[in-house]
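Changelog note: in this version the structure field was regenerated for every chain. One regenerated record is shown below for reference.
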Amino acid sequence: MELKRFVPSDVCLVCSGCCRFHEASSVWGPFFLFEEIQRLTEADLVPSCLFAHADYAAGRGAWIQLVEDSGEFLCPCLDADRHACRIYPHRPFDCRLYPFILVRQAAGILLAVDEKCPYVQKQGASAAFGEHVAYLTRLFSGPQGTAFLRTHPDIVQDYPSDYRVLHVLSQA
């Protein structure tokens, strides 16, 4: 599914904040859809050994295994020396959507934003932010978005509560 970008690539590529984690296993880590794993591994862009394969045979997505570096855990696609993503043009849906996230709660599927993103901290009250929220709400509430969410239910995660809810996309 194509997505309009909110965070400009020149800003995104120099930050790398969303590519660093405090834990080896984090729901905030990059989640790859099954077809993204296939495409990246077949093109030799990411080795298949970096994905948790528990559900691979079932055609389900997986988190990429984070790598330890100086007490923090990094996405292995991050070139930490250059603060650049090695697969940026081919990054997964999860990374293209960020700093917006799809949250599973008892109330249903929520569109939310991670306010730890420095760009959101600066632009979170801007007209551009509001326009992007409206765009995502229309997208995920429309036929293409609802079909995508039905086909890829694993993209909706149980995030901890440190996010801001923007819209309830579907009721439970």
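Spot check on this record: Strands lie at 20-21, 31-32, 62-63, 67-69, 72-74, 78-79, 84-85, 100-105, 108-113, 164-171. Residues 9-92 form one domain.
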